[in-house]
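Handoff note, outgoing to incoming analyst
You'll be picking up this chain. Sequence as last confirmed:
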Amino acid sequence: MALFLLLVIVAIALGVIGVVAKGLFYLFVVGVVVLVADLVLLGVRRGRRRRRLPR
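Most recent structure output, in case you need it:
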């Protein structure tokens, strides 16, 4: 969970810097990519946990 929160903070920081700083739009794009990758990672982890539950 700590990795997820760290990646979300990094994505938000890159996005804000990319939008505010003129000419650094690529940082916004990198922030969005990191956020999407983080959400995919979270989905994979949650999906893996659900399958391991005993019946």
